[in-house]
Amino acid sequence: METKEFEVVELKRFEIELLVGFFMVVGFLAVAYLAVNIGASRFYGRSGYKVYASFNKTGGVKNGATVEIAGVEIGKIRSISLDNETYEAVVELQINQGIKLQEDAIASIKTKGLLGEKYIQITPGGSDAILKNGGRIRETESAVDIEELISKYAFGDVKSK
Hints:
alpha/beta
């Protein structure tokens, strides 16, 4: 009699372990799905082309931040590096396929929302010439430094009209 009860207990234990293992796999897959979709990560190659823009100050803009025209996302910031000759920040932008930027477009670092998320806003130009892969946006506007503005106002460097 004891061996039958022992076999039943072992079978139930195996079923419980199998069920726990199943839920662990489902949980792992759910976390992986959320990481890919919420983080907007792509495991495959990114489509589009890259352009560069140089800024005096990046103001805290980060890799992966959005690039927008008229509030519509058209790309992402791929990397930020320092030009050793001019000491300017060189930002590499990954622009979505099908979006055409004019050579006289303007890139500006802006802040959105209450939390101060930084992004790059592109103002289209009027030129007929289109930037190609590896091209450079010549006109840029660096981030506004609030601390610098307050300091100038506090110490009288800002002139009022």
